[in-house]
Design a protein that fits this description.
Elements: E1 4-9, H1 14-25, E2 30-36, H2 41-51, E3 55-58, H3 61-73, E4 79-82, H4 83-92, E5 96-101, H5 109-117, E6 121-124, H6 127-143, E7 147-150, H7 153-161, H8 164-169, E8 179-186, H9 204-207, H10 217-225, H11 227-240, E9 247-251, E10 257-263, E11 268-272, H12 278-286, H13 317-328, H14 330-348, H15 354-367, H16 376-398
Helix pairs in contact: 2-3, 4-5, 5-6, 6-11, 6-14, 10-14, 11-13, 13-14, 13-15, 14-15, 14-16, 15-16
The structure holds NADPH dihydro-nicotinamide-adenine-dinucleotide phosphate (NDP) and magnesium ion.
Length: about 400
């Protein structure tokens, strides 16, 4: 079997760790080219010792010196690189065949784009890059014969439920293929049953305690506001080239159905499994083959019932904002994504309350932008504006 070289962007995160677990199960097939981290240098060091990558990337020179000293101590030959230049280098190196894009937020945009431009199989966990740069990102994939395999469990499930021909090309007219609707499922997060008037009292610790999935802090808060489902709504429109009115969000608290595709003859295909990201990761890494992910099979004797409800926008205003942004266009999506990164971080730092996240995100979208996005520089400018507006709104709240 030919050895494939993988770069894992965001190796120390929740998706990164799950990816390395799958890689370790298939050591005869996959080798690690590079591992990257932002703040968790000690965790990265342990990963480097375990996987002996050619490169390790950290965000600044101090971290690089610290990591280098630790690596010297174990006579490691892994080379340490720094910052965005390092990330782009390891995402686009010629030997690399697959890049796991698992940096959180728009910090992942440029390295993920570099992987697309270098014709890699892009394993896309970093939904924020697709939300903030949709068309430009997909053009980079197509023009460079890259492959785009969704890691997000919903989109990976939808991918698996689409016709084989679409899967092979990762593009095509889904309407012609008989697809009438894409149904995104979401658990509703930890506050699904909390009285709405108590939401403003919820703490960061309560917001990140997701009932079914174990994930990084940002996406956990996004799940509590359902902004995550909103970002996934936008992600689905781009990935599957469908209009917003062909995407429906359904609350499914048990998280066993990861999403569904409805066909014109009334059939609905669903992908089911444990809420464990190693399943979509293994699927995307080994597609079109299948291989062990380490995830236990579902036990239908113990699952019990599967429930479905409509989302209530009074409880989840962020979901509504994202659907509106998706209909309004790229600029609104980029603004919203940027504002949300800032408001979620501010909530985690207890500078604003839980319900301020949606309120400020809404103010930023309503402000809008005069910039029309036609290049990555435009994306970065709108992203910067969204951050600035959100920061101003946060400051205003703390000064009253
Ligand atoms: P984590 O917070 O657990 O991990 C994020 C990773 O990105 C870490 O390796 C972190 O480094 C790195 N990172 C953070 N900021 C920067 C930066 N400015 N520059 C470079 N690297 C950075 O997040 P998750 O693994 O949960 O999520 C990663 C992505 O995958 C997100 O886009 C999320 O939406 C998506 N996703 C996650 C799912 C999940 O189950 N976790 C499910 C579906 C999608 P360090 O740890 O060293 O600080
Ligand atoms: Mg998801």
């Amino acid at each position: 079997m030919t050895q494939e070289w993988i770069t894992v962007l965001g190796a120390t995160g929740s998706i990164g760790v799950s990816t390395l677990d799958v890689v370790a199960r298939h050591a005869e097939r996959f080798s690690i080219y590079a591992l990257t981290a932002h703040s968790r240098v000690d965790e990265l060091f342990e990963q480097v010792v375990a996987f002996s990558p050619l490169f390790a990337v950290v965000s600044n020179q101090d971290q690089a010196n610290r990591l280098q000293a630790k690596l010297d101590g174990v006579l490691s030959t892994t080379q340490v690189l720094v910052g965005e230049t390092g990330l782009v280098q390891v995402a686009s190196a010629p030997q690399v065949t697959q890049v796991m894009a698992a940096i959180v937020g728009s910090a992942g945009l440029l390295p993920t784009l570099a992987a697309a431009k270098s014709g890699k199989r892009v394993l896309l966990a970093n939904k924020e890059s697709l939300v903030s740069a949709g068309r430009l990102f997909l053009e980079a994939i197509r023009e460079n014969s890259a492959q785009l395999l969704p890691i997000d469990s919903e989109h990976n499930a939808i991918f698996q439920c689409l016709p084989a021909q679409w899967q092979a090309q990762q593009s095509g007219d889904l309407k012609q293929a008989g697809v009438s609707k894409i149904i995104l499922t979401g658990s509703g997060g930890p506050f699904r049953e909390t009285p709405i008037n108590e939401l403003s009292d919820k703490t960061p610790a309560q917001a990140v305690a997701h009932p079914n999935w174990s994930m990084g802090q940002k996406i956990s808060v996004d799940s509590a506001t359902m902004m995550n489902k909103g970002l996934e709504f936008i992600e689905a429109c781009w990935l599957f080239d469908v209009e917003p009115d062909k995407v429906e969000v359904v609350i499914h608290p048990q998280s066993y159905i990861h999403s569904m595709v409805q066909y014109s003859d009334g059939s609905v295909l669903a992908e089911l499994g444990q809420p464990d990201m190693r399943t979509p990761i293994a699927h995307a890494m080994m597609f079109p083959e299948r291989g062990d992910s380490g995830v236990a099979a579902l036990d239908f004797g113990t699952i019990g019932s599967l429930d479905f409800n409509q989302p209530d926008y009074n409880r989840y205003p962020c979901l509504q904002l994202a659907i509106e942004a998706c209909k309004a266009g790229q600029e609104s999506c980029t603004l919203l994504n940027a504002a949300n990164e800032v408001t979620v971080a501010a909530f985690l730092e207890q500078k604003i309350v839980f319900t301020d996240i949606a309120a400020i995100n809404g103010e930023v979208i309503r402000h809008g932008t005069a910039i029309q996005i036609s290049s990555i520089d435009d994306v970065l400018a709108v992203d910067a504006l969204g951050r600035q507006l959100a920061n101003e709104a946060i400051q205003k709240r703390s000064s009253v």
